Amino acid sequence: MNNSFPRLIDGMCATLRSEVLSRLDDEFARGQVFGVINLLNTLKVRADWSSGFLVAQIAAQRQALDGVRKLLADTSTIGTPALPDAPIPEAPSIDQLMARRDEGNRALVGLQEWLDGAGRSVPDELRRAVEALLRRAMRAEVDIELKYSPRPLFAEMSSGREA
Amino acid sequence: MNAPIGDEAMLAARIAGYLAQQVGHPVTVGAVRRFPVGFSWLTFAVPVTGLEGDRVTRELILRLGPDYGLFAPYSAQPQVLAMRSLEGTAVPLPRAYWSSDDPSVLGAPFLFCEKVSGEAVVPWVSANEPGLDEGYRKALGAQFIDALAALHCVPWVERPIAAMANGITVDNAAQRNVALWQRLIERWAMRSYPLAEWGIRWLKSNPPRAPRVAIVHGDYRTGNFLEEGGRITAILDWELVHLGDPHEDLGWASLPMYMGGSKLISRLAEPEWFYARYAEKTGFEVSMASVRYYQVFSLLKLAATHMAAARCFEEGRFNDMRMPAMGSQIATCLRQMDKLIEAS
Question: What are phi and psi of A82, to 5 degrees?
Fold first, then answer.
């Protein structure tokens, strides 16, 4: 999911009001919709994304970044980019985890840009080793993202019918 | 900020005023009806009486590009240039009428076009949905391929769309396209996507030479044509049209997202038949290496589109629930893109 939790809640409430309530005549059904809106508003102030997938993504990044740091430290390659290595705080908030995940991703992008720029003269073997580490982390991130994503309901959203 | 589009009644009044100016006499606009389809431009049916000074009611299609839309800010120009360039060709499409990018007229850039009869075949179906009837899908499939081949054979240099050329050649077509979508990703992405960067690097490092520069639809697939009685009546949704390598449309049409759970390109054609018939109709050989390149490109482009959807929703421009749903599919597109790169 790539949208923020509060915004999703606000969007769901707005859609229920403007697109569902406005087309519902049945009083009981309308009451139920307001019930759902009520609960969504509660979730907005009490809930947030779970941390499991973020922790897993950050772990995959750190493994790659630590490996790259070691590879580049073992060589005399100059101009290597600085890589994040600050420890994750104890009992981190979701916002903190997201910030770390995004920082790690910026580092992975930065390393690719470095390989194409200042790191162009890196020996082929070292380049392949760095790229292999990057690729493993990038794939891990999307695999984790997919593992924590339900089946999309595009057929149902297009037709308005249960599949 | 543009003047708001307003509700359908307000829109009808503005349309009546605008059309009266265009045709030089008053017209009557009936109830404007919005179609629920599409993720980007808004589409309305507009019944108009008196366009030719008579009492006949004709239904026009109005396309509006709102400033809260997926790919905003919009211009009607590419669509208009393409549709005017394709008049009289073997590509079935609606006729374009009046258009303007001035938001003060109707609240957003717009174009009026002909209403063509027919229904769209839906690309997104559930796993339980049976495939299309064999005879029906083969007939549609042949027309789908033939229309695409006809598009790519249009001598565009002599047509209005040549205004979009900007120095494109068979040697720079791929790089220019990748550069465009790289800029769009920079504009839309709300965070870094390392795998998207990986894809961009691969595409920049492996650009094919185009067999020709052609008019490229940019979103050619099931869902973007109308059919009636087994006949394709119109190819729709020209908002991503541009000049480029025709293999791009082949790559896009063959994405797994449009197969509806089958092994058929756009739910219509076996791949071998699709490429063979296309090659026969265009007279040039299909490069499967280029098709694979443009499948990688198309998956990156689709991921970028989903980034735009996520941003559009996050910024509060749009409450359509399909937007965050599209945003949740960025990883799917990038993973498939990565698998194709790995296999290349």
Answer: -70, 140
Task: Name the closest residue on chain A to residue B190, using Cα atoms.
Answer: A2
Answer CATH for B120-343 from 3.20.20.140, 3.10.20.30, 3.90.1200.10, 3.40.50.300:
3.90.1200.10
Give me the pLDDT at residue B126, please: 64
Chain A residues near residue B197 by CB distance under 8 angstroms: 108-109, 112-113
Decide if domain B8-115 falls under CATH 3.40.50.620. Answer: no
Those residues of chain B whose CB sits closer than 8 Å to some CB in chain A are: 122, 124-129, 190-195, 197-198, 201, 306-307, 310, 313-314, 316, 319-325, 327-332, 334-335, 338
pLDDT of residue B175: 98
**Residues of B whose CB is below 8 A from A146:** 331-332, 335
State pLDDT tens for residues A53-84: 899 999 999 999 999 999 988 777 667 888 99
How far is it, in rounded angstroms, from Cα B144 to Cα B127?
A: 23
Note whether A85 contacts B: Cβ–Cβ < 8 A: no
**Tens digit of each residue's pLDDT (9 = 90 or more) over B95-105:** 999 999 999 99
Q: Note whether A146 and B323 are within 8 A (CB).
A: no
- A119-122, Cβ contacts within 8 angstroms, sequence gap of 24 or more: A119/A77, A119/A79, A119/A80, A122/A75, A122/A77
How far B2 CA sits from the closest chain A CA (Å)?
Answer: 22
What's the confidence (pLDDT) of residue B127?
Answer: 64
Residues of each domain in chain B carrying CATH 3.30.200.20: 8-115
The pTM score is 0.92
pLDDT by residue (tens digit) across B187-232? 999 999 999 999 999 999 999 999 999 999 999 999 999 999 999 9
Query: Which residue type is seen at B50?
Result: G
CB spacing of A134 vs B126 below 8 angstroms: no
Cβ neighbours of A163 in B, within 8 Å: 125-129
Q: Which of A106-120, B145-159, B176-190 has the lowest mean pLDDT?
A: A106-120
Q: What percent of chain A has pLDDT over 70?
A: 98
Q: What is the Cα–Cα distance from A38 to A41, expressed in whole angstroms? A: 5
Q: What tokens were used for B28?
A: 């009557």
Domain ranges of chain A: 5-47, 52-147
The whole-angstrom distance between B186's CA and the closest CA on chain A is 12
Helix (H/G/I), strand (E/B), else coil: B334 = helix
CB contact under 8 A, A146 and B190: no
What ipTM score was computed for the predicted complex, to two decimals?
0.87
